[in-house]
Write the structure tokens for this entry.
Amino acid sequence: MPKPRLPVRKIKEVLRLKWELGLSERRIAASCDMARSTVADYLRRAQEAGLSWPLPEDLTDEALQRRLYPPIERLDDSVRPLPDWNVVHQEMRRKGVTLRLLWEEYRSLHPGSYSYTRFCELYQAWRGRLHPTMRQLHKAGEKLFVDYAGLTVPVRDVSGEKREAQIFVASFGASNYTYAEATWSQQLEDWIGSHVRAFAFFGGVPEVVVPDNTRTAIRDACYYEPEVNPTYADMAAHFGVAILPTRVSKPRDKAKVENAVQGVEQRILAPLRHTEFLSLADLNEAIADRLAAYNEAPFQQLEGSRRSQFEVLDQPVLRLLPKTPYRFARWKKARAGVDYHVAVDGHFYSVPYAYLKRKLDVRITETTIECFYRGNRIASHARSLRSGAHSTVRDHMPSAHRRYAEWSPQRLLSWSAKIGPETTALIKQILASRPHPEHGFRASMGIMRLARNYGDQRVEAACRRALVIGSPTYKSVASILRNGLDQTELPLDNEATAIEHDNIRGPDYYS
């Protein structure tokens, strides 16, 4: 706003102090309680108006105002060339383009035409006459809005029963170029698949994808820090896009996609309401035919069509599609058990034993299982569908477990044969007495350790005694060696010598 003008009385006082008393501009400003620049402005205007002191007696206050502030000759709006507001509106969608830049270009072609302020006023008035959902200004290639239509389409599946197909819609903010397809559900796998096919349809990816706060896309719809579903975030990272969900309770954030959804429902789905579809592929083929016509239909209030605007605005600035195809990945939380394995669909996969009992993020694809701790990958496995089985990486084991895993029944028997036949026979009985041979590995390895401590000859004797007394176990062998019984004679025919004592009655007592 222009500064309010001073009363004529003060203006005359400024002229008097300067021309009659010869005071400096600084002293005049202090005396009249105004800025020094204001004093200089009035003195300059008085000189340009040809005034002198004393002022003419017949010069009225109104006449003095007119001489100091002559009216500005304005051109009639009807004779000024108006900018092409459609072109201005389209140029404003390009990155780096501002209204001031467009005004400067306009003034260079039409000198003396509209001021920058008037130029902005006229443009805002023109924009105000557009459809309400088109008033938001979106930069080219920046935002892709995605959502599901409210209408569904009945389709007969292979069993002959009718199922309601969901309609996914994606629309660019700048050009309104739209993609639509049918899926069986709004679940995560269909949601992600629709995005992948939409990017392929557009031939590139935008900077930002704007979804609603649906549970499929957003785990926590916080107003300030919404948490994106990890699978959705994984897809965004692969394509190099950002996920920016609409703000909670802010319907204007969704205006663009709601307009696109309304257009798809009215121009594509409604005309198909009498058609019976026998497969999802048939429905998507019909949608694709009508979608092409929808995108090529001319705008009512703007020049061109969705396709032509897309080719001019969005398509040139889209990012390239990744060279490697996207692979759908499901994520889950898991805790490594005491055996340092995590369970995925009934199969157990190892992680480094240092992470046992830690909460991990598990990424699941059709072929691989990856485990992450605080964003760092700590394990990767080929996916297995064997329920109840284990996939174990040797390097994930503690050193003791690693040594244990190197053994097999054949290796244990080969080792025992070096000591003697009695040791081999005892090891066979240990392995045979367990539900699974691996369960006897630890006891067999314990006997190996005894051989290092006591020597092969004593262990062979101890194993012979353990077999004779019917106790083929590690504990029996260790007890025999510890008590030196391996160095005593064995009882004949496996019968123990009778012990004579006054407290023992003997067999004759009971006859």
